[in-house]
Amino acid sequence: MPPSRWIGSFTHTERSNAVSAARSRSAGSNAAVSPITSLSGRGARPRPRPNLTVGFAADAVPLTSGATDVSSTPEDSWTARLHALWRAAFEAVNTKGLSDELYSGLLTLPSACAVLGARLAADGTAPVVRWADHAGLRTQPPGLAAEALTWVAGHPAGDKAAIAQVPLAEVAAIAPALATRLAAAGATGFLVVEFAVAAGERGLLGLGTSAALPADPAVLTAMDQVLDVIVATDHHASQLRELDDRQAQDAILAEASLQMSASLDIDDTLRAVVRMVVPGLADGAVLHVHRDGRMVPIAVAHVDAHREQALADAVRAGCWAGQEVVRGTDPASWDERPRASELPAEIRLPLLTISALRAHGRDVGLLSFFHGAGSRRRPDRSFLSNLAGRAALAIDNATLYDRRRRDVLSLQQHLLPAVLPAVPGLELAAKYNVADHSLEVGGDFYGVVPRPDGTVTALIGDVCGRGAPAAALTGLARHTLETALEEGGSAEHALVGLNTKLLRHGVSRFLTLATATFEPVKPDGVELTLLAAGHPPPMVLRRDGTVDEPDCAGRLVGVLPELRLRPAAARLTPGDTLVLYTDGLTEARDDDGKFFETDLAPTLAGLSGLALPDLLEALVAGGGRYRVGDDAAVLAIRHTGAVA
User: Fold this and answer.
1) Cα distance between residue 396 and residue 381, in whole Å
2) Least confident stretch, 229-233, 299-303, 342-346, 594-598
3) Do β-strands 294-302 and 339-340 pair in parallel, antiparallel, or remain unpaired?
4) Does residue 214 have a cis bond before it (omega within 30 degrees)?
5) For the CA atoms of 378, 381, 384, 389, what is the dihedral angle to 10 degrees?
6) Which residue among 135, 206, 417, 433 is least enclosed by CB atoms within 10 Å?
7) Do both 427 and 336 map to the same domain?
8) Is residue 59 part of a domain?
C-alpha cells in the first residue's frame, strides 16, 4: 500500500479530535473515553517492531520498541505507534518521556534518516536538544544546540507554524554544521517546523529525508500528527507543573506564616522564608528591609551555595537591575514582570522579579526573586503579592515591637539606679533581666542607700503587675524609701512609712520588699540586719560554698496596717556574699515544670568561686537549666576584706 494511503487513513478530523481530547484530559476533563481509543477500526495482527539497535554509536541510547507491538502492514504499524504515543502522552510529565517513541516512530517513515528536536527558550537559548538517527538517540550532543539556534536565526518561522521543505544545499547556506550532520545521516532534504509550546517558548522538529523534495504528503501528515502529540503532551506537562507550583506556593505561604507569627526575631524569620523559596520557586532570592532611611539586604539565597556570596556581594555593591528601587525610586513604579537582572554573568541568574513589601501604607522592604537561564519556575503574581503582604506585616510588627521594647527598656532603666555607690570594704553588683518579649515596664527595683550614721541599707522590691501603674508605684516606693533612709530613718521605719502612705492614698497595688542594713565595715567582717516584707529572704553565700538562709519575714506592703516584721541578723566575713533577689528568679522553671526556688541554694553554692558579675549572669540565666521568663532583679554584695 502506498505511504500516502496508509498514513492518510488517519484523518484530519480524527487527529483534531485526539488533540482536543488530550487538551481536555490534561485540563481535568471528566470525559469517560478519549476519541484516541477508536482511531483505527482495523483489527491489528501484532508483530514485534523492527529492531533499530543495530550499529548504535557508543554515546547513543538505543531506540527501543517499548511495550507497543506493531501490525503487519505499514498502515497498522503507524496507527499502533500513534496510539502508543497518545497513551504515553497522558502518563508523561514532560516530552522527554516520549522521546524514545517519538523519534523511533518518525524514523520508520519512508526515507527518514534523522530527527532533530529542540526547545527554544524565550531568552534565545536552546536548553533541550535531541538528535536521533539509525545509530540511536542522543540528548544534548555537542554542537547541536548552536546548530539549531543558527538555523532558527536564519530561517524565521513566521506567525503560522508550517512544515518547511528545505533542500540540503539551502540548509548548508544557513547552518553549515547542521547540513553536515544531516548529510552524514544520509539526508538530502530537511522537513522542519517551529511551533509554540508552554511557558512562552517554542519547539523545533526536523526530519532529515533521503527522498527527493517535495516530500510525500503522507510523510508531512505523519509529522503533523506527531506535532499534535508533542503539543498536547507539553500542555499536559505544563498543567502538572502549574499544579506542583501552586501546591509548593501554598505550602510555602503556610510555613512562612507559621514562621513569621512564631518569632519576633524578624531577621532570622525572613532568612528562613527566603530559604523556603529557594530552590522551591526560584533559583535565587534577596530580601531587603527598610532601616534607618535605606533598604538593607538581610537575607540572600542562591540555589548554588558556591555562588551565594557572589550574589550577596553584587547586590550590596549595586551591580544589579534592582538598585534603582533600593536607592529610593518609588517601588510602585516597578512592575513585577521578569526582566534582565543585570547581575554578573558568573552568578548565572539572568532574570529578576521584584515585589515591594508594604504595610499600613508604608514601604518596609523589597523581595527579589532570580531565575536561571531556561528555568520555568515563575511564582505567579498572586503568590508574590500574598507572600510580600505577609512579610511586610511581619516586618512592620517586628519593627513596632522593637521600638516599643526599646522604650520599655529605657523607662525601666530610669526606675533603677544608674550606678551603685562605692562602699569601702564591700563590692556591689546588680543585674536586671527583662521578661521575654515583654512590652510593658516591670515592677522590680533595687537600690543601695548610704545613711548619715555610716550604715548602708541595700533594698530590693517587686511591685505587683506590669505597665504604667506598676511603673508609677515603683517610682513612688523607691523615692519614699530612699528619702526616709537618707534622712536617717531605719529600714523598718522606711517600710512602715511606705505602707502607711499606700494605705492612706488607697493605692490598689501592693509590693514586696527586702532590706539589708550594713553596720560600718571592718576588715574581719560586717554585721547586718535583714528584713523581708512578703519578699523572699536574702541568702548568704559563704566563701567555702555553704549557703545560709536567714529567717526573716513580714507582711506584704500596702495591704494591711501592720507589717509584723521579724528581722534577722547575719554577719559577712571576707569572701562572703549577700544575695538579694526577686521572685522572677525563684519562679523560673525547667523543662519538667520544676521551680528554680527548690534549686536556688544548691545552684548558688556552685557559683561561690565566681566574680560577682559572672555570678549574677549565671543566676539570671537560670543556672543553665531554668528559663527565667519574667522580670528578675538580683543584687549581690561581697565583703572584700579590705577597708580603706
Assistant:
1) 22
2) 594-598
3) unpaired
4) yes
5) 180
6) 417
7) no
8) yes
Whole-prediction pTM value? 0.48
Reduced 3-state DSSP string for 159-174: CCCCCEEEEHHHHHHH
576 is in which domain, residue-wise? 421-639
Q: 36 is written with which cell numbers? A: 484516541
What phi and psi values does residue 378 have, to the nearest 5 degrees? -135, 100
- H/E stretch holding 383 reads helix 381-414
Which sign does the torsion angle of CA 448, 450, 451, 454 carry? positive
The answer to whether 83 and 40 have CB atoms below 8 angstroms apart is: yes
In a domain, 145, yes or no: yes
580 shares a domain with 635: yes
According to the 3-state scheme, what is the secondary structure of 562-626?
CCCCECEEEEECCCCEEEEECHHHHCCECCCCCEHHHHHHHHHHCCCCCCHHHHHHHHHCHHHCC
Residues in the chain: 644
Q: How far is CA 442 from CA 27, 380, 400, 439, 487, in A?
A: 61, 47, 19, 9, 28
Q: Which of 242, 276, 307 is the last residue of a domain?
A: 242
Q: Tell me what pLDDT residue 96 has.
A: 64
Q: How far apart are CA 478 and CA 480, in angstroms?
A: 6
**pLDDT-above-70 percentage for the chain:** 80
Q: Which residues contact 92 (CB under 8 A, 6 or more apart)?
A: 98, 233, 236, 237
Yes or no: say if 319 and 343 are a contact pair by the CB < 8 Å rule.
yes
Contacts of 596 (CB under 8 A, 6+ apart): 585, 586, 587, 588, 589, 590, 603, 622, 623, 626, 628
Pair 363, 398: CB distance under 8 Å: no
Q: Which of 366, 360, 284, 289 is nearest to 325 (CA)?
A: 366
Do 429 and 360 share a structural domain? no
Which position has the higher pLDDT, 269 or 33?
A: 269
Are residues 373 and 495 part of one domain? no
Residues contacting residue 26 through CB under 8 Å, at least 6 positions apart: 90, 232, 235, 236, 239
Q: Is 637 helix (H, G, I), strand (E, B) or coil?
A: strand
What is the full DSSP assignment across 76-124?
HHHHHHHHHHHHHHTT-SSGGGGHHHHHHHHHTSTTEEEEEEEEE-TTS
Inter-residue contact 208 to 185 (CB < 8 Å): yes
In a domain, 458, yes or no: yes
**How many domains does the structure of the chain reveal?**
3
Return the higher-pLDDT residue of 464 and 343: 343
Question: Is residue 110 domain-shared with residue 237, that is, in the same domain?
Answer: yes
Helices and strands: H and E segment counts in the chain:
17, 23
The three three-digit cell numbers of residue 65, written as one number:
520498541
Average pLDDT over residues 269-273: 78
Q: Which three cell numbers stand for residue 453?
A: 550614721
Residue whose grid cell is 531565575: 371
Grid coordinates of 485 = 533612709
Q: Please return the burial class of 45, using the count of CB atoms within 10 Å of its CB with bins 0-12, 13-18 and 19+.
A: exposed
Provide the pLDDT for residue 334: 59
| Whether 149 and 238 share a structural domain | yes
Q: Which residues pair with 112 in a beta bridge?
A: 209
Helix (H) or strand (E) holding 394: helix 381-414
